[in-house]
Task: structure prediction
Amino acid sequence: MNELSASSRITYRAVMVRPGMARRIRGLSDKTLAWLFITPTIVLLLAINIFPLLWTIYLSFTNYRANRANVPTIWLGADWYQSILTDPDIWAAMQVTAHFVIWTVVIETVLGFGLAYLIDKKFRGHGMWTTIILLPMMLSPAVVGNFWTFLYQPQIGLFNYVVAFFTGRAASSFQMLGDVTLSPWAIVIVDAWMWTPYVMLICLAGLRSIPDYIYEAAEVDRASKWRQFWSITLPMALPFIMLAVLFRGIENFKMFDMVNLLTGGGPGSTTEVASITLKRAAFESWRTGYSSAFAIILFVTVFGLANIYVKALNKVKSR
Amino acid sequence: MSIDATPSIARRGLADRVLRRGPLEAAATTIIAAGVVMLMQPLSLTLYSWSFATTLFGTVMFTIVSKVRE
Result:
């Protein structure tokens, strides 16, 4: 362009931009242009995020039922909130959720950090092993739910045969998904299998962010490998581990798809996590107002945890 | 003059120490965590009943104090 004369530059511009359009764009300020570009996103966000949230908050104070939309809506105040927060069944669902969240997070963190520590040693073929370990994370939860249902089959399932091989029990003598004691652990095992690689990835990022010179200084000071692990590796990887714990905690608190496919909340209500209870209230009992109040309670909890998560994320970013 | 000035400096010092984003965010975070624990604990239905109010208070507090100066 620099080699073009002034007249040819004018001709070039005239060809590239229609005069009417150019005049219109030239008349807009930078701020107006910026608003022009972000308005569609804001409208979309308001339509699919903010409006449904505000509408759900409104519904949570009414007796609205989605299957009887023509019935006049009555304002109930905080009645649903009071009902949910004094209901022993909902409290039990929260404890089932707590069992699921605590055990999955503990198992995933311990195994994930252990795997990350091994992969970080850069042994021969570590790239291939990393890919193999990451495979479960790349699958859809619907697929995982379905094929683990087959693996847990007492007659033909591979899982029962592996347990039978190591324990000596008959493979068909126990049902992972049908037993009241075993089913809460069945969903924990599947989630841990699927999401341990994710925790491993975050921990690996933390381990690789530790500068080598710190270990070299520790070697000079004749610190043992054990001391190096407790005094350097673990403290420096801790913000990343916290990040993984919070993220998996939030995700598992609202876990629905995998548990619904594996057990559907059964047997009885032994694996009925909060999201399954919510689905039953909303789309089986059609108590829309009640389920809206329950959804708001879960939303506030997740939002609160997300605040802590963002704080932890900022701490990691500032390193 | 000096009698008046000394307590005001002391008051400002206390406010500076307490009304900073760091300690306030830590307090809000603790309240949120307490609310979540109260929601999922198996020991007391009363604690469970107050969990939502606690989490909501902590979340609102966190949202407000995250705008406070460092």
Remarks:
- The mean pLDDT of chain B is 82.
- The interface with chain A takes residues 25, 28-29, 32-33, 35-36, 39-42, 45, 48-49, 51-52, 55-56, 58-59, 62-63, 66 of chain B (CB under 8 Å).
- Residues 51 and 65 of chain B are 21 Å apart (CA to CA).
